[in-house]
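User: Please predict the structure of the protein below. I'd like the answer in C-alpha coordinate form so I can feed it into my own downstream comparison script.

Assistant: Understood. Taking the following sequence of 223 residues as input:
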Amino acid sequence: MKSWSVEDQPREKYLRLGGQKLTDAELLAIVIGNGSVGQSALSLAKSLLIRSGNDLQKLFELSVENLMDFKGVGKVKAVKIKASLDLGYRLLPLIPSKPLSLSSSAAAFSVLKPVLIGLAHEEFWVLYLDNAHVVIERSLLGKGGFTATVVDIRLVLQQALKWGATAMIVAHNHPTGNLTPSAADKTLTLKLKDAAKLLDMVLLDHIIVGKNEYFSFADQQLL
Protein backbone atom coordinates (compact mmCIF):
# COMPACT_ATOMS: atom_id res chain seq x y z
CA MET A 1 0.00 0.00 0.00
CA LYS A 2 2.96 2.31 0.56
CA SER A 3 3.66 2.22 -3.19
CA TRP A 4 0.28 3.82 -3.82
CA SER A 5 -0.19 7.59 -3.59
CA VAL A 6 -2.23 9.01 -0.72
CA GLU A 7 -5.02 9.64 -3.23
CA ASP A 8 -5.10 6.01 -4.34
CA GLN A 9 -4.79 4.24 -0.98
CA PRO A 10 -8.57 4.05 -0.30
CA ARG A 11 -9.12 2.68 -3.82
CA GLU A 12 -6.44 0.04 -3.32
CA LYS A 13 -7.97 -0.92 0.03
CA TYR A 14 -11.39 -1.18 -1.60
CA LEU A 15 -10.00 -3.57 -4.24
CA ARG A 16 -8.36 -5.74 -1.59
CA LEU A 17 -11.02 -5.77 1.11
CA GLY A 18 -14.29 -4.55 -0.39
CA GLY A 19 -16.46 -1.60 0.61
CA GLN A 20 -17.68 -3.09 3.90
CA LYS A 21 -14.18 -2.86 5.35
CA LEU A 22 -13.71 0.82 4.55
CA THR A 23 -14.61 3.71 6.81
CA ASP A 24 -17.11 6.37 5.76
CA ALA A 25 -14.21 8.75 5.17
CA GLU A 26 -12.41 6.26 2.91
CA LEU A 27 -15.54 5.63 0.83
CA LEU A 28 -16.18 9.35 0.56
CA ALA A 29 -12.57 9.92 -0.50
CA ILE A 30 -13.06 7.49 -3.40
CA VAL A 31 -16.11 9.46 -4.49
CA ILE A 32 -14.26 12.78 -4.23
CA GLY A 33 -11.43 11.37 -6.35
CA ASN A 34 -8.69 13.85 -5.57
CA GLY A 35 -7.90 16.46 -3.00
CA SER A 36 -6.72 20.01 -3.31
CA VAL A 37 -3.52 21.90 -2.61
CA GLY A 38 -2.25 20.84 0.80
CA GLN A 39 -4.77 18.09 1.49
CA SER A 40 -5.55 14.64 0.13
CA ALA A 41 -9.00 13.39 -0.84
CA LEU A 42 -9.03 11.40 2.41
CA SER A 43 -8.24 14.49 4.49
CA LEU A 44 -10.95 16.42 2.68
CA ALA A 45 -13.43 13.58 3.27
CA LYS A 46 -12.60 13.52 6.98
CA SER A 47 -13.08 17.29 7.20
CA LEU A 48 -16.51 17.04 5.54
CA LEU A 49 -17.62 14.32 7.93
CA ILE A 50 -16.34 16.16 11.01
CA ARG A 51 -18.19 19.32 9.96
CA SER A 52 -21.32 17.16 9.54
CA GLY A 53 -20.94 15.69 13.01
CA ASN A 54 -19.88 12.36 11.48
CA ASP A 55 -23.53 11.97 10.50
CA LEU A 56 -24.14 10.82 6.92
CA GLN A 57 -27.75 11.94 7.22
CA LYS A 58 -26.63 15.52 7.86
CA LEU A 59 -24.16 15.29 4.98
CA PHE A 60 -26.96 14.02 2.74
CA GLU A 61 -29.13 17.00 3.65
CA LEU A 62 -26.50 19.52 2.50
CA SER A 63 -27.16 21.10 -0.89
CA VAL A 64 -24.58 21.40 -3.65
CA GLU A 65 -24.15 25.05 -2.68
CA ASN A 66 -23.63 24.11 1.00
CA LEU A 67 -20.95 21.59 0.05
CA MET A 68 -19.17 24.16 -2.09
CA ASP A 69 -18.73 26.29 1.02
CA PHE A 70 -16.12 23.76 2.21
CA LYS A 71 -12.55 24.59 1.27
CA GLY A 72 -11.39 22.25 -1.50
CA VAL A 73 -14.91 21.35 -2.70
CA GLY A 74 -15.84 22.78 -6.08
CA LYS A 75 -18.98 22.20 -8.10
CA VAL A 76 -17.77 18.90 -9.61
CA LYS A 77 -16.85 17.37 -6.24
CA ALA A 78 -20.07 18.64 -4.67
CA VAL A 79 -22.20 17.06 -7.41
CA LYS A 80 -20.28 13.76 -7.09
CA ILE A 81 -20.93 13.67 -3.34
CA LYS A 82 -24.63 14.48 -3.71
CA ALA A 83 -25.09 11.94 -6.52
CA SER A 84 -23.43 9.14 -4.55
CA LEU A 85 -25.61 9.80 -1.49
CA ASP A 86 -28.75 10.01 -3.64
CA LEU A 87 -27.93 6.61 -5.15
CA GLY A 88 -27.52 5.14 -1.67
CA TYR A 89 -30.94 6.46 -0.63
CA ARG A 90 -32.55 5.04 -3.75
CA LEU A 91 -31.12 1.64 -2.89
CA LEU A 92 -32.53 1.54 0.65
CA PRO A 93 -36.16 0.73 -0.23
CA LEU A 94 -35.00 -2.00 -2.60
CA ILE A 95 -33.11 -3.95 0.05
CA PRO A 96 -36.00 -5.86 1.70
CA SER A 97 -36.65 -9.03 -0.31
CA LYS A 98 -39.56 -10.33 1.76
CA PRO A 99 -43.04 -8.83 2.10
CA LEU A 100 -43.01 -5.99 4.60
CA SER A 101 -45.91 -5.87 7.05
CA LEU A 102 -46.42 -2.51 8.73
CA SER A 103 -47.51 -2.95 12.32
CA SER A 104 -46.61 0.51 13.64
CA SER A 105 -45.92 4.09 12.65
CA ALA A 106 -42.21 3.42 13.21
CA ALA A 107 -42.30 0.62 10.62
CA ALA A 108 -44.04 2.91 8.14
CA PHE A 109 -41.49 5.64 8.81
CA SER A 110 -38.65 3.24 7.99
CA VAL A 111 -40.19 2.72 4.54
CA LEU A 112 -40.77 6.43 3.98
CA LYS A 113 -37.40 7.78 5.15
CA PRO A 114 -35.48 7.01 1.95
CA VAL A 115 -37.87 9.01 -0.22
CA LEU A 116 -38.86 11.91 2.05
CA ILE A 117 -35.89 12.89 4.20
CA GLY A 118 -33.60 15.56 2.80
CA LEU A 119 -36.00 17.05 0.26
CA ALA A 120 -36.20 20.83 -0.16
CA HIS A 121 -39.83 20.61 -1.34
CA GLU A 122 -42.92 18.79 -0.12
CA GLU A 123 -43.97 15.43 -1.55
CA PHE A 124 -47.07 13.34 -0.86
CA TRP A 125 -46.71 9.53 -0.82
CA VAL A 126 -49.16 6.70 -0.26
CA LEU A 127 -48.39 3.21 1.00
CA TYR A 128 -51.04 0.80 -0.29
CA LEU A 129 -51.55 -2.28 1.92
CA ASP A 130 -53.41 -5.58 1.86
CA ASN A 131 -55.44 -7.17 4.67
CA ALA A 132 -52.26 -8.21 6.50
CA HIS A 133 -50.92 -4.64 6.20
CA VAL A 134 -48.23 -5.81 3.79
CA VAL A 135 -47.07 -3.10 1.40
CA ILE A 136 -48.43 -3.72 -2.10
CA GLU A 137 -47.27 -0.49 -3.68
CA ARG A 138 -45.65 2.80 -2.73
CA SER A 139 -46.68 5.77 -4.87
CA LEU A 140 -45.67 9.42 -5.19
CA LEU A 141 -48.92 11.27 -5.86
CA GLY A 142 -48.09 14.91 -5.29
CA LYS A 143 -45.29 17.45 -5.29
CA GLY A 144 -45.34 20.97 -3.96
CA GLY A 145 -43.26 23.85 -2.77
CA PHE A 146 -42.10 24.70 0.72
CA THR A 147 -45.57 25.39 2.08
CA ALA A 148 -48.13 23.11 0.46
CA THR A 149 -48.73 19.96 -1.49
CA VAL A 150 -51.72 19.61 -3.79
CA VAL A 151 -53.30 16.19 -3.33
CA ASP A 152 -55.92 14.71 -5.65
CA ILE A 153 -58.05 12.49 -3.41
CA ARG A 154 -59.66 10.86 -6.45
CA LEU A 155 -56.23 9.79 -7.69
CA VAL A 156 -55.36 8.36 -4.27
CA LEU A 157 -58.48 6.18 -4.38
CA GLN A 158 -58.07 5.24 -8.05
CA GLN A 159 -54.63 3.89 -7.28
CA ALA A 160 -55.98 2.02 -4.27
CA LEU A 161 -58.53 0.24 -6.49
CA LYS A 162 -55.87 -0.42 -9.11
CA TRP A 163 -53.66 -2.24 -6.61
CA GLY A 164 -56.52 -3.95 -4.78
CA ALA A 165 -55.58 -2.30 -1.50
CA THR A 166 -57.75 -2.60 1.59
CA ALA A 167 -55.78 -0.13 3.69
CA MET A 168 -53.38 2.72 3.18
CA ILE A 169 -50.98 5.03 4.94
CA VAL A 170 -50.43 8.51 3.55
CA ALA A 171 -47.39 10.66 4.24
CA HIS A 172 -45.78 13.93 3.34
CA ASN A 173 -42.72 15.82 4.48
CA HIS A 174 -42.14 19.19 6.09
CA PRO A 175 -38.76 20.40 4.73
CA THR A 176 -38.42 22.88 7.61
CA GLY A 177 -38.43 20.03 10.12
CA ASN A 178 -41.49 21.39 11.94
CA LEU A 179 -43.68 18.37 12.64
CA THR A 180 -46.78 20.27 13.75
CA PRO A 181 -49.66 19.40 11.38
CA SER A 182 -51.28 22.38 9.73
CA ALA A 183 -55.02 22.96 9.51
CA ALA A 184 -54.80 21.86 5.87
CA ASP A 185 -53.05 18.64 6.92
CA LYS A 186 -55.85 17.86 9.37
CA THR A 187 -58.58 18.63 6.85
CA LEU A 188 -56.94 16.48 4.18
CA THR A 189 -56.60 13.58 6.63
CA LEU A 190 -60.30 13.61 7.51
CA LYS A 191 -61.32 13.86 3.84
CA LEU A 192 -59.12 10.89 2.96
CA LYS A 193 -60.45 8.89 5.91
CA ASP A 194 -64.08 9.51 4.91
CA ALA A 195 -63.43 8.86 1.21
CA ALA A 196 -61.66 5.58 1.98
CA LYS A 197 -64.62 4.41 4.08
CA LEU A 198 -66.92 4.74 1.07
CA LEU A 199 -64.80 2.12 -0.71
CA ASP A 200 -64.49 -0.14 2.35
CA MET A 201 -60.86 0.86 2.81
CA VAL A 202 -59.13 2.04 5.97
CA LEU A 203 -56.79 4.98 6.32
CA LEU A 204 -54.41 3.66 8.98
CA ASP A 205 -52.23 6.71 9.42
CA HIS A 206 -51.02 10.03 8.08
CA ILE A 207 -47.33 10.53 8.77
CA ILE A 208 -45.50 13.84 8.59
CA VAL A 209 -41.76 13.42 8.07
CA GLY A 210 -39.28 16.00 9.34
CA LYS A 211 -35.49 16.08 9.37
CA ASN A 212 -35.02 12.62 10.88
CA GLU A 213 -38.22 12.16 12.87
CA TYR A 214 -41.94 11.98 12.28
CA PHE A 215 -45.42 12.82 13.50
CA SER A 216 -48.13 10.15 13.39
CA PHE A 217 -51.83 11.07 13.29
CA ALA A 218 -52.70 7.57 14.49
CA ASP A 219 -50.29 7.69 17.44
CA GLN A 220 -51.75 11.04 18.46
CA GLN A 221 -55.31 9.66 18.10
CA LEU A 222 -56.20 12.19 15.41
CA LEU A 223 -57.77 9.60 13.11
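That's the full C-alpha coordinate string. Residues 97-216 form a domain with the Cytidine Deaminase; domain 2 fold (CATH 3.40.140.10).
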